Amino acid sequence: MDNIRFRGVMPALVTPFDDGGRIKCETVRRLMDMQLVNGVSGFYICGNTGEGPVLSAKTRMDMAETVMEHIKGRGAVIDHIGASNIQDTLALARHAARAGVDAISSVAPTFFYNYTDDEIVDYYKAIADVTDTPMIVYATGLMRSPDITRLIARLMKIPGVVGVKFTRTNYFEMRKIKELNGGNINVINGPDETLLCGLVMGADAGIGSTYNIMPAWFARLYRSFVDGDYDTAREYQYRIDGVIDVLLRYGVNGVINSTKCTLELMGFDVGQAAFPAKRFSASEREALKADLAAAGLAVG
Which of 10, 19, 35, 144 has a CA 20 to 30 Å removed from the CA of 50? Predict the structure, then answer.
């Protein structure tokens, strides 16, 4: 069986919702259309960028249904179903299967507790027991295994596990993971600022937060790399990184709120990041707009 299910660039889609947690369905549809026109190959929903871990299970299910109703075969959808308790995780996994997503994904259960490798393996086995949907392991720096390559090798033996979203910064580590299973493992680069590094080290695809606001640039980077035009790929990575630098300066705990603010400036009613995330004042919004323009991304 070929485990390489996902290639290209896939935005970690923001979740547009109102203060009551209701999905802004029309905004989701407009945002998806814009990104698909600009060359993305699908979407990763309800992950960190999609604020899944802090949203209710119902809101996450509503988002998955909205995305699946609108995608209509134009791209792949990976639904992040990891939650703070296993019952929500399993319910979300079952729902994702009913919604018809192409794959599910989950961070390891290590946000507050330093679980052992055996416990992490048991966690992913529990998910696999309730669904036949292909699964992408989400490997972040919080996956505190003493040997991440060995852990991923064990996880690849679980029925349904096809690959890993590698949101770590050690690309030597990524290459060792890509060599597992005779190379038949779907490795997806996570860090936006080093997508080109991930592709050089064997990643099949990229998923990222800032793809939401720069889909065409990421798609051009990926296509240039595939075509062997490494100078152009490097040019786009540098251009992207200039914008990311701005988003990080305005963001708090990453770029979720600054990315959402940028999308608002672009005319997408995505709403605020979930409370208690920072709200931007009018003057901060204008300053962000100006700094983005100086970095080459005109919005508004």
Answer: 144
- In this predicted model, what pLDDT tens digit does every residue of 83-117 receive, in sequence order? 989 999 999 999 999 999 999 999 988 666 789 99
Q: Which residue in the list 165, 176, 178, 260 is annotated as catalytic?
A: 165
pLDDT tens column, 144-180: 889 999 999 999 999 999 999 999 999 999 999 999 9
Cα distance between residue 103 and residue 289, in whole Å: 36
123 is catalytic: no
Phi, psi (deg, nearest 5) at residue 102 = -80, -25
CA 151 to chain centre: 21
Question: Structural domains in the chain?
Answer: 8-225 (3.20.20.70)
d(CA 89, CA 129) in angstroms, rounded, equals 12
Which residue do the tokens 């033996």 mark?
Answer: 157
DSSP state of 278: P
**Residue 190 near residue 170, CB atoms below 8 Å:** no
Torsional sign, CA 288, 289, 295, 300? positive
Per the annotation, the verdict on 211 as an active-site residue is: no
Two structure tokens written together for 142: 């919080």
Sheet holding 42-45, edge to edge: 8-11, 205-208, 186-189, 161-167, 135-140, 103-107, 76-80, 42-45
**Which of 214, 274, 254 lies closest to 15 in space, CA to CA?**
274
> What are the tokens at 290?
């100006």
Residue 213: HSE in the Cβ half-sphere, 13 Å Cα cutoff: 34
Please tell me which residue in 138, 171, 236, 250 is annotated as part of the active site: 138
Residue with tokens 């937060």: 209
Q: Is the peptide bond before 134 cis (omega within 30 degrees of 0)?
A: no
Asked whether 206 and 199 are in contact (CB, 8 A), the reply is: yes
